[in-house]
Amino acid sequence: MGNIGFLFPLVVVVAVVRNCVATLSAESPNTTTDRLALLGLKPHVTHDPQNLLATNWTSVTSVCNWIGVTCGSDHQKVIALDLTNMSLRGTIPPHLGNLSFLCHLNIRFNHFHGSLPMELANLSSLKYINFGHNNFQGKIPSWFDSFTQLQSLFLCENNFFGVIPCSLGSLSNLEVLILYNNDLKGQIPIAIENLSNLKWLYLDNNQFSGQLPAALFKCRELEILSLSNNALEGIVSQEVRNLTRLSELYLNTNNLRSMLSVGLP
Ligand SMILES: *[C@@H]1O[C@H](CO)[C@@H](O)[C@H](O)[C@H]1NC(C)=O
Ligand SMILES: *[C@@H]1O[C@H](CO)[C@@H](O)[C@H](O)[C@H]1NC(C)=O
Ligand SMILES: *[C@@H]1O[C@H](CO)[C@@H](O)[C@H](O)[C@H]1NC(C)=O
Ligand SMILES: *[C@@H]1O[C@H](CO)[C@@H](O)[C@H](O)[C@H]1NC(C)=O
Ligand SMILES: *[C@@H]1O[C@H](CO)[C@@H](O)[C@H](O)[C@H]1NC(C)=O
Ligand SMILES: *[C@@H]1O[C@H](CO)[C@@H](O)[C@H](O)[C@H]1NC(C)=O
Ligand SMILES: *[C@@H]1O[C@H](CO)[C@@H](O)[C@H](O)[C@H]1NC(C)=O
């Protein structure tokens, strides 16, 4: 299980950065705003054991040469920020909301904490967000519905609590929603029925309760559904079979009873 949520995302990373490059429009090159936005992150990083930001994010070179930063090929705006596994500790400043062309934001496997600033809602070009494997706290913000182009959202292995906001149901391009290992609770929102492109849903290791909503069986593209280790109740009906693309289903450690006479493929 742990391995599944871990290997596939690497494939997604590569695919999405390519996707970013293809969908940009040209604009007169000016890196000033982006440079200030990234420099805004530096004082919020309180621990950088390899001194990566301190020695590399300097005015000697353009932001486009900074470690973890990718600019569009036809202009000098930052389209991707990838600080994966750099042992960074700190918080996310509002300044990152100024990276107006950002399409790909990946800071997984660090020690970022605190809550997410609302200014990030301005990043309406984001297709890929990975805050997984950090120490973020707070609720999943309802303003995540600003990310109208979002395809992948990873918030796994953090301390997010509260319910899944219904507003996430409006992310009609969402294909990957990974929320395992948090302190999330409440019912799986009915609004999930509107995620008609959803392929992978990982909600395992939280405190979700209530019945499995029939709405879930309207997500016809679902390939992987992982709900293990929650407090879900009721009967798993034959409607699971409506999910014809489903290849992996994890339901263990809940209060569910299965009415399926034969196992799923
Ligand atoms: C770049 O943008 C900044 C802030 O918007 C502005 O002050 C500066 O004059 C611009 N530089 C160029 C070369 O256009
Ligand atoms: C920053 O890191 C990038 C990528 O590793 C490298 O190409 C560049 O030369 C570094 N810049 C400085 C000033 O160290
Ligand atoms: C993180 O970096 C360490 C040290 O370079 C490496 O051993 C580990 O496999 C990396 N983890 C991930 C998830 O990339
Ligand atoms: C960037 O964002 C910060 C905080 O949200 C704001 O105060 C600042 O004026 C912005 N800077 C630019 C250059 O847009
Ligand atoms: C975010 O966008 C709103 C409206 O699009 C704008 O009024 C606001 O100034 C933006 N904030 C930042 C920090 O860029
Ligand atoms: C799903 O989307 C439709 C159309 O936008 C909307 O009318 C409906 O209320 C949504 N369902 C839920 C449960 O939010
Ligand atoms: C599942 O499929 C059956 C038969 O096609 C249909 O009657 C039912 O409404 C479907 N359930 C959902 C939740 O879409």
Report on the structure:
- This protein has a single domain, classed as Leucine-rich repeat, LRR (right-handed beta-alpha superhelix) (Alpha-Beta Horseshoe).
- Mean pLDDT is 88; it is low at 1-16 and 22-28.
- The chain contains three helices and 18 strands.
- It is 12% helix and 25% strand.
- It is of the alpha/beta class and 265 residues long.
- Strand 2 and strand 3 (78-82) form a beta hairpin.
- The structure holds 2-acetamido-2-deoxy-beta-D-glucopyranose (NAG) (7 copies).
- One 2-acetamido-2-deoxy-beta-D-glucopyranose binds at residues 55-56, 58, 60-61, 65, 67.
- Residues 97-98, 119, 122 line the site of one 2-acetamido-2-deoxy-beta-D-glucopyranose.
